[in-house]
Amino acid sequence: MDYIRIFTAEKTGNYLVFFSSYKMLDDIAELAGDSLPGLFLQSSNMNEIEREEFLEEFETNPQSTKIGFCVLGGIFGEGIDLKADRLIGAVIVGPGLPMKDSERELLRRYYEKRGSKGFEYAYLYQGMNKVLQAGGRVIRTMEDKGAVLLLDDRFLQGQYQKLFPREWFPYKVTKRDKLNGILEKFW
Hints:
Helix content: 25-40%
Largest sheet: 5 strands, parallel
Radius of gyration: 17 Å
Low-confidence stretches: none
Structural class: alpha/beta
CATH class of the domain at 2-96 and 134-165: Alpha Beta
Number of strands: 5
Number of helices: 7
């Protein structure tokens, strides 16, 4: 929660925070209470009008910070273009790996028995595709400027990092108490 608060407080603007499930989204929203200004949430059953209203919160030249909580792989994680300063940052909480189930485990074992990358094919590639899609919402044109914050130690592992797009390099690994300084220099 502290990372999200620091990340969104450094510069007034519009931010999306992506979670791996609605349960996590709701739990963190409840934990945030009133501590995050301009917070609004994606719900699991939004109709077309509600989706449009959600996106309309992201105004150009915002006078106050708006924070949208969303689900990785959901309707706001891909296919939306919030150009210029309509979106200046995204926080991605976790790599969005699919839930373990019998079908995925069968796929994992199939590839592993053949000496191939079972975990990667069954889980990692699908999860990281969601991460890359969500992160890609921030920079839509050559003129856009924004930041992406990845929150999960798994993002430090080589199998995850090798899937990062080249535009994400070089990146910074930081602790909570150093995040303000890094963001201040960036903005």
